[in-house]
Structures are given as structure tokens and as C-alpha cells.
């Protein structure tokens, strides 16, 4: 019998890419491949990629240059590019790096065992056809992290929103929801293996919709309740929400189950109505704020995080100030903040001039970051003296004598470990904070 092929998987980008790599690992293991955690010595290197921002692609291209050096030493090494960059760039990847053997889009992972074998005979193997059905719902992902505490569960794939700046619909295809029975089965399997937390994933989880053969429809609110009922000790999170689809019934389900985490990621992108229309976001700034107010009213104690883009096409100083105003009103716990970067193939890149000077983008981004730091510090300050429940994840980055974990509100807490173990729920008295975390002691 020949030795099994050793595959090294490296993942860039969002949580869905992490889960996709776990699906890839499961498919390859089913076909006799062995997953290795070291690139050196691997027979196959697969890089699962992100195209949301240009710097993410540049990081991948730089990493592929390093893998090309490995291939010079081991010519039989197969190097493959998976995911969003594969779908966006296709054959251009072969031109950029002559060591790449394989380019495979996110809906073609079932074919990987065959494509890998083909690539040993011919260079330039590519499969990037998008599907309207593929959900990988019959595959139990191979969990690649060693923690065994938190896991991602993809409930839907693709996106129908076509925001002007976003490449996702073009590289992940149209929206399709997964059979709820397979979702519940996957969650039950995780519980049986000792996992304490799941995060339900989708480009827009709020629009999850499944119709059974009898015509009965299950919405995201219904699915969220079903997952929460699998085990009352299992924490349930979800990402990402779209403001136009975050309905009151979803919030009411969140409020009705203690194990559904009280944290929502609700991307704003801009506080200007003119910019939001140009972005094709589907809501106004006031409609967005009504959703924020509903979150705080229906789910007391819930935190909200967001995404913000500085310097989108045509953004004026007045538009920028409108964004800062919404930030103050929303009181975000955390934000992912970026300068606008045109992505090839998007509506904005093809129809709008990138007309905000880079120095203006940088200044506006710095003002957004400074304000968010104030908001985050204010929120942390308000936690001092409270006792919060923390799911212990493992040792902190700075000391083996300390553990870190997260609250229901997704705040990171660092504390002396005492007798606690990863996977435990502990009550922690918050005594202070750093720019990145809360600090405290077990009570």
C-alpha cells in the first residue's frame, strides 16, 4: 500500500473560511489523505483564501512565494489555491506564481481528491464553477483547532445583497440555506464531543429560510430556537447579521433563551444616507438606529459590534461626520474599521471613481478608530465591579498562570486560573481592563 498523502491546510479570512477548511479536511480524510500541521514535509499544500480586501490577497501571494521555495526543494509537492481568490482570479493565479498546480473555488471541494491526483500529471488544474445547491450539508467538518470548546457551523452559503463594494456574491454565489435537520445533527455531534459553544455562520444569517416538502417555512428565528434547545449548557452565537433583516422575532428568541449569547455583529459601513444608497445597503441611518434601539430594548445587556468603511466613493466631510454621529448613538462595543479599497469586479469599482484622497481616508479612519477606542473604554469601565459568567477558553497570551475566556457579550476576560479548566463556566468579578480585555478574579 502506498503511503497516504500528507496535506497541509492554511486558512485566511473570515470564520466561514475556517469552517470551509474543516469541510475540506473532512473530504480529504474520507479519501485517505492525512492532515498535517507542518508545511515542511507535506505532499500537498492548500491555501484557503480571502478576497474581501486587497491586503488579504497580497498576504496570500507573499505566502505562496514562500511555498514556491519549498517546491524547488521538493518538485513533487502539489500547491493549490482554494476559495475566494481562486474564484476571483482563476487562471491569473497560474501567471502570478508558476509553482501553483491547482485552483479550486468554494463550491468545488468535493472534487479535490480527484483534482489533486490530476494535478500530479498536469499543471494548471482548475475548477471554479459556482453552484446554486452546494451546501456540504452531508459532511461533518473535521475540527482542526485543538481547543475543542468552540466550533463554527455554516447554516447557509452565498449572498444576494450585492453591496456595491463587496466581492462576496461574485466569489461565493447566490444565497442558499441548509437543511435544518443536518444543522441540528451537526450541533448534537459537537455537544456529544464536549463542545461548549457554536457559532452559526452565513454571509447574512438573518435571511436563512428553509421550506420543507409540505410547504412549511423555517426562518432564522425558528432555527435559532431549535439550536438553543439542543442543550441548555451550549452557548449559541451567530454571524453576520444584516440590518435590513434583523427582525424583532430574532431578538425575541435571543431574549427568550439564556444560552443564546447576548452579542450581535451589525455592520453599519456608513452613517450617511447618501453613502448607504450608493453602497446599496438597503437601509437608511435612521432605520439602522431603530434596529439598534430594538436590540437594546428587547435584549437587555446585549452588546453590538460593527463594520465601518472610511472614504467610500464620493464620501464628503459631512458624510464622515454622520458616521461618527451614529457611532456615538450606537455605543459600539467594538468595530472592524477599514479604508475603502476598490475590489475588482464589484459595482463600485466599475461605476464609481475612487475619488477620496488616501490621506483623507487615513485621517477619517484615524478619527473613527479614536472614537471607537473611547466607546470601548467607556463600555469596559462600566463592567468594573460586576460579576460575569465566563466560558474558559485556555491560557492567556501573556501568562500560563492566567486563563482567558469570553462572556455572553463576547468580551474577553483574563483572570488567575485557580482550579478552573478550559471548557468550564466560571463567575469572574471584573476588577479592571486593558485596551483589549477585561481583567478580574474568580468568585
Overall description:
There is one protein chain. By secondary structure, the protein is α/β, with parallel strands linked by helices. Among the domains are: 6-127, Rossmann fold; 387-442, Beta Barrel (OB fold (Dihydrolipoamide Acetyltransferase, E2P)), CATH 2.40.50. It has helices at residues 15-30, 54-73, 84-89, 92-96, 112-119, 168-172, 180-192, 220-228, 248-256, 273-279, 285-298, 317-330, 347-351, 358-383, and strands at residues 6-11, 34-36, 44-49, 78-83, 102-104, 125-127, 150-154, 156-157, 176-177, 197-201, 209-211, 217-219, 235-239, 263-265, 303-310, 334-339, 387-395, 402-406, 412-416, 425-433, 438-442. The strands form six sheets. It has a six-stranded parallel sheet with strand order 2-1-3-4-5-6, sandwiched between helices. The protein has a five-stranded mixed barrel with strand order 17-18-19-21-20. It is globular and about 60 Å long.
Index terms:
single chain; 443 residues; alpha/beta; Rossmann fold; OB fold (Dihydrolipoamide Acetyltransferase, E2P); six-stranded parallel sheet; five-stranded mixed β-barrel; 14 helices; globular
Amino acid at each position: 500500500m502506498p503511503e497516504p498523502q500528507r496535506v497541509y491546510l492554511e486558512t485566511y479570512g473570515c470564520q466561514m473560511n475556517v469552517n470551509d477548511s474543516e469541510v475540506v479536511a473532512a473530504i480529504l480524510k474520507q479519501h485517505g489523505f492525512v492532515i498535517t500541521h507542518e508545511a515542511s514535509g507535506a505532499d500537498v499544500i492548500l491555501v484557503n483564501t480571502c478576497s474581501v480586501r486587497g491586503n488579504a490577497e497580497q498576504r496570500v501571494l507573499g505566502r505562496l512565494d514562500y511555498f514556491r521555495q519549498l517546491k524547488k526543494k521538493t518538485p513533487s509537492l502539489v500547491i493549490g489555491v482554494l476559495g475566494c481568490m481562486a474564484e476571483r482570479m482563476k487562471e491569473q493565479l497560474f501567471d502570478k506564481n508558476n509553482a501553483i498546480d491547482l485552483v479550486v473555488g468554494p463550491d468545488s471541494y468535493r472534487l479535490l481528491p480527484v483534482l489533486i491526483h490530476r494535478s500530479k500529471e498536469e499543471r494548471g488544474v482548475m475548477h471554479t464553477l459556482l453552484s446554486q445547491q452546494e451546501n456540504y450539508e452531508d459532511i461533518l467538518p473535521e475540527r482542526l483547532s485543538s481547543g475543542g470548546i468552540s466550533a463554527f457551523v455554516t447554516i447557509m452559503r452565498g449572498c444576494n445583497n450585492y453591496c456595491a463594494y463587496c466581492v462576496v456574491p461574485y466569489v461565493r454565489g447566490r444565497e442558499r440555506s441548509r437543511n435544518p435537520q443536518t444543522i441540528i445533527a451537526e450541533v448534537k455531534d459537537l455537544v456529544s464531543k464536549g463542545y461548549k459553544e457554536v457559532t452559526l455562520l452565513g454571509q447574512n444569517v438573518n435571511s436563512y429560510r428553509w421550506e420543507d416538502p409540505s410547504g412549511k417555512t423555517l426562518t432564522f428565528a425558528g432555527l435559532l430556537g431549535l439550536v438553543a434547545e439542543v442543550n441548555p449548557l451550549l452557548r449559541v452565537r451567530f454571524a453576520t447579521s444584516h440590518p435590513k433583516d434583523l427582525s424583532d422575532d430574532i431578538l425575541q428568541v435571543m431574549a427568550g433563551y439564556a444560552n443564546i449569547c447576548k452579542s450581535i455583529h451589525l455592520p453599519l459601513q456608513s452613517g450617511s444616507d447618501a453613502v448607504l444608497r450608493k453602497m446599496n445597503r438597503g437601509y437608511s441611518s435612521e432605520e439602522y438606529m431603530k434596529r439598534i434601539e430594538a436590540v437594546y430594548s428587547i435584549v437587555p445587556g446585549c452588546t453590538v459590534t460593527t463594520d465601518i468603511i472610511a472614504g467610500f466613493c464620493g464620501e464628503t466631510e459631512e458624510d464622515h461626520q454622520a458616521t461618527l454621529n451614529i457611532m456615538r448613538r450606537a455605543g459600539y462595543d467594538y468595530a472592524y474599521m477599514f479604508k475603502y479599497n476598490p475590489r475588482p469586479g464589484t459595482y463600485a469599482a466599475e461605476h464609481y471613481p475612487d475619488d477620496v484622497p488616501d490621506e483623507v481616508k487615513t485621517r477619517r479612519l484615524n478619527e473613527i478608530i479614536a472614537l471607537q477606542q473611547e466607546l470601548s473604554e467607556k463600555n469596559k469601565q462600566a463592567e468594573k465591579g460586576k460579576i460575569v459568567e465566563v466560558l474558559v477558553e485556555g491560557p492567556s497570551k501573556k501568562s500560563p498562570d492566567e486563563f482567558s475566556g469570553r462572556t455572553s457579550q463576547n468580551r474577553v476576560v483574563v483572570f488567575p486560573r485557580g482550579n478552573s479548566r478550559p471548557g468550564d463556566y466560571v463567575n469572574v468579578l471584573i476588577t479592571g481592563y486593558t485596551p483589549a480585555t477585561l481583567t478580574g478574579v474568580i468568585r
